[in-house]
Amino acid sequence: MSLFCASSPVDTSSSLSSSSSSSSSTSSSTKPHSVEAREAEVRLLPPLLKDQAWGVHAQEAFLLFCLALGPSDLQIHWLINGHMLDTPIMEHRLPLGQKEILVSSWLREGALIKDARYHCVAEASTGSDTSEVDLRLTIGDEESVPSRDLNQWRGALTEHEQLLKRWAEAWESCDGH
């Protein structure tokens, strides 16, 4: 328990500050100690960001998730290349008892135009945890973007042309009856 006290900042707003300075066995009961010890931890849960790097391609959107467990003041924020993200972040908070919370945070980023390092940072009054991933474009992927985009446009135009042809045929068949 003394490691917990030494490594965590003192939270003056909770009962933790009055009981955490004592390392003797004369504290209240075993159950409150386990609650305090669990509350002190800020942990990111799998899948960590490094587990989510599935090969990002240029001009394609992607999604990153971050799950964290900690005390009720737990907050998650995202960084890209060391800077706060401008992208809107989605978050869901699920209370687990009176003092713990599970926070699920995710972001959907647009097309990746250059290599980037993403960080998910979970912070609370009792500590923090960080997960990071380096996303790199596939070699040669930048050159294939114009031809891939052109092929997508061709496909869309062909599909549109076929749809118009079917509508014209349907219209003509209605006109004849």
UniProtKB/TrEMBL annotation:
Transmembrane parts of this sequence? none
Q: Where is the composition biased (Low complexity)?
A: 7-30
Q: What SUPFAM superfamilies does this protein's entry cite? A: Immunoglobulin (SSF48726)
Q: Which intervals hold domain Ig-like?
A: 46-136
InterPro entries, alphabetically?
Ig-like_dom, Ig-like_dom_sf
Question: Region (Disordered): which ranges?
Answer: 1-36
Q: What is this protein called?
A: Ig-like domain-containing protein
